[in-house]
Amino acid sequence: MLDAAARGAGLFHFVMIKPTHYDDDGYPIQWVRSAIPSNTLACLNGLAEDAHRRRVLGLGVDIRLHTYDETNRRVRPDRIIRLLRKAGGRVLIGLVGVQSNQFPRAVDLARPFIAAGLPVCIGGFHVSGCLAMLPQMPPEMCAAQAMGISFFAGEAEEGRLDQVLRDAYAGTLKPLYNHMDDLPSLEGEPPPFLPKKHVRRTSGSLSSIDLGRGCPYQCSFCTIINVQGRKSRHRSPDDLEKIIRENHAQGIKRFFITDDNFARNRHWEALFDRMIKLRLGEGLKIGFTIQVDTLCHKIPNFIEKAEQAGVRRVFIGLENINPDNLIAAKKRQNKITDYREMLQKWREHGAITYAGYILGFAGDTKETILRDIEIIKRELPVDILEFFILTPLPGSEDHKTLLQKGVWMDADVNKYDLNHRVSHHGKMSDREWEEAYRAAWKAFYTPEHVRTILRRTAAHPLGRTETTLSTILWFLLMILYEGVHPLEGGAVRLKFRRDRRHGLPIESRFVFYPRYLKETAAKLWGYWSVYRRARQTMKEVLAAPDRWTYSDLAIAPPREDEFDALDLYHATSGGEAALARKRREEAIRAQAAAARHEPAAAGAAP
Ligand code: B12
Ligand code: SF4
Question: By alpha-carbon position, which residue is closest to atom 63 of ligand 1?
Fold first, then answer.
């Protein structure tokens, strides 16, 4: 039998860990089941499998891949180190897809590996965003580098991961790999792929794929454009088909397409056509969730093809209903005069709509926020409204500007999860802003409004009342009982006494376990009571004699006096001006059409 040193040259382990982040008590946020498998982990794993197939470390070297998603399992560096030592061989520990809020946890996970002499490399949005926008590395990155941690900035496709693996194998890992100036093409690159064991640890048979990266817009709070660029890069329909078939063969049939704005993927139509071929042509039972902008309904056939392709859930960056706020955030493309038409169209095509809504723009106060939520409840047919605290995320223009001006931002990047306030507001005190955030969730998800959303869904032949309710419950329970943002929620919270954030004391077992058990029991009871009430509401909604004839302002077809009567245009800040702009544009179009002797097409594609 070979000893470890002799086997060393023929064996290389690439350990990929997607870290989570800490809750307010310093415990990693982890679940028995998380919502979705990590796309970055799948991307890196796909690239590493391909590197292995191509034998990038030489014919005689076996590359072993190990993947861990810390959101749905405990990661024990001590055990991993023991396993690696036992197996022998050389090693790279990759902390993957590390967002700003996950950076402190990633560094804590790295500590024992570094102490054991194993090389560690961190990649993801925090590293890329900081290198893209800041003149120098922020303090937490400098401290990590001083510990001996390497960084990877940019994207790992087009052979860049190969270089990192070769260097790690040769024992010459560099302190920094910076590819920020050169964005790779995605066509023909190995697709994201994770073994089914990861999917089993999530909410169901759902996987994720990125079909494109980059967005043409310029929102000042956005990191994506500064990291992934403003040009649309995309995978091909053949890549997509391969991903779907590989996953389908494992029983995975639902996909979250992680493109930030699928409507601006230049290949959207060819990609939808391929999904349609697989779904309607071959009868594959597949379904998709996509993210789009508020102008997507103006792209001819976009929503129609989305329905045929099996798009069942749509995330929309609504962000705010006050045009003054949208303009200040450089989100000029969002026109409130389009919101109703766009949301109604998705509803007509059977999709559940989730709208992102940011709280804390310059014009917001607690009163205006609560006023706006009531307007949305009455006038916009959105199923799920998800609130975020306006956050200067590292990598965004907002972050860079505040830093340049020397404005205070919280130094603890663990809090940059959009669920914590990390800066001050011009009009609201810190307390008011935090209260406004919590009050917003409560104001939208009242029992009465949950009933209204279900009634709207149940009144439509394509409405999926049961699915809508379970989605609402997911959001509600995370906010009410777990204290985390629903987008990082999961089922049944895990907490491990010894995994507390570096620097915080390990609690006594006599304090930790009784509290954990009490908390868990109280939460489960809370879950059960909310669930019971919600099921009762659903039964009533489904059995209502007027179920199919139910209508209200949000779902009723546009009225003649639509623009004169609705608060959306008159009670919001900048609403009147937005309306005036729309009317001016329509008048210009009408004049142009008259000059060409054509009927004027109000709201035609831009
Ligand atoms: C999909 C997504 C989600 C999904 C995640 C599920 C999933 N299936 O992955 C959901 C909706 C759950 C989600 C939630 C959140 N998200 Co999110 N999400 C995204 C999104 C849109 C795509 C992520 C992705 O897959 N990108 C593609 C991958 C391939 O890119 P990548 O991660 O950069 O990885 C590449 C390189 O960085 C590099 N690389 C990465 N790691 C490593 C490691 C090594 C060793 C090497 C060599 C290379 C390398 O190689 C990769 C391949 O090229 C991004 C925006 C974006 N466009 O990326 C936001 C984004 C990552 N999310 C963000 C945030 C803030 C969150 C939340 C905290 C916010 C919230 N409250 O909703 C939560 C946190 C949840 C969690 N536990 O992760 C921010 C992070 C910004 C920052 N500076 O931290 C982003 C950038 C969006 C934004 N608002 O700016 N998110
Ligand atoms: S539309 Fe979305 S992805 Fe595009 S720049 Fe704005 S926030 Fe970023």
Answer: 99
